[in-house]
Amino acid sequence: MSASWLLWIILSSLTGSPVMAALVVLAVVLVADRYTVGILPSPFRAVGRWQRASKLQRLLQANPHDRRARYELADLWVQRKRYAAAVEVLKPNLEAGDDDVGTLFLLGVAYLGAGDAARGELLLDEAAKLEPGYQMGAVDLERGRFRLARGDVKGAIEALERLRGTRQGTVEGRVLLARALDGSGRDADAALMREEAWKEYVVAPGFQRRRERLWAWRARPSRPLAYGAMLVVGLALGISLLSRVTAPEPSPDGYGYYGDAPGMAADSE
Questions:
Q1: Rounded CA gap, 246 and 222, in Å?
Q2: 18-40: b (≥16 Cβ within 10 Å) or e
């Protein structure tokens, strides 16, 4: 935030237009985020999800028994952290007999997010019984995440250690485990886990690095700050140099600029 503010001040002074400077800063922040941390959501993806959710809600108003639409809408609500809404949408599917691993897992996550840890853990237990390695340890990842959020440090460590065995290249799981180790007072182990998370990120294939970029920066939070400072300094120097190159030089007598302006020849005659 401070880097963006500094960049806006510099651009405002150079361009003389605070609005134009703000637009440039916004564009720079979006591009920099896209290729570094990846914190900001994609506006196009967000609009697409909003349109899809609206369509699914209309479908359910016309046909409340469409269980496939209920599942998809609940998945969208979970992605947007609207856990209570996801529970209300998906619970009828379970009551109607949908006890497949996907439904149990999604509803379990929704219950955990809504604050009902007992029901959420029970549903995740059932999902793990049906398919122990579901989505390469997704059950243990969500268990660890929500246990850590509600202060169950010991349970979070237990789940996230299992996740490391199932999903060996996980960066997110290691960062969450480092937080849990911090909470248990094991600072040295937490530091080693963050270092391990960064090493996994460095050697991961491109598609995994794009997906886990944010968690890698959380393992080393100094990196995005350093890149942001370098970006601000580089842009400021570039804009300053450009303004010096393109600005016309005043004439020695102080009445204009070097070079003939239109009409000067005629006046001299």
A1: 36
A2: eeebeebbeebbeebbeebbbee
Burial class (CB in 10 A: 0-12, 13-18, 19+), 215: buried
Phi-psi region of 136 (alpha: psi -120 to 50; beta: other; left: phi over 0): left
CB atoms within 10 A of CB 102: 15
Q: Which residues pair with 257 in a beta bridge?
A: 250
Average the pLDDT over each of 30-39, 108-117, 123-132, 240-249 and give the range with the smallest value: 240-249
pTM exceeds cut of 0.90: no
Helix, strand, coil percent values for the chain (each to nearest 5): 75, 0, 25
Query: Among positive and negative, which fits the CA dihedral 122, 127, 131, 133?
Result: negative
Residue 65 has phi, psi (to 5 degrees) of -95, 10
Report the DSSP beta bridge partners of residue 250: 257
- Which two three-digit tokens encode residue 268? 């001299």
Query: DSSP of 235-260, one letter per residue?
Result: HHHHHHHHHHHHSPPBPTTSSSBSSP
Q: Which of 2, 1, 4 is nearest to 235 (CA)?
A: 4
How confident is the model at residue 49, as a pLDDT? 85
246 vs 243: CA distance, rounded Å? 5
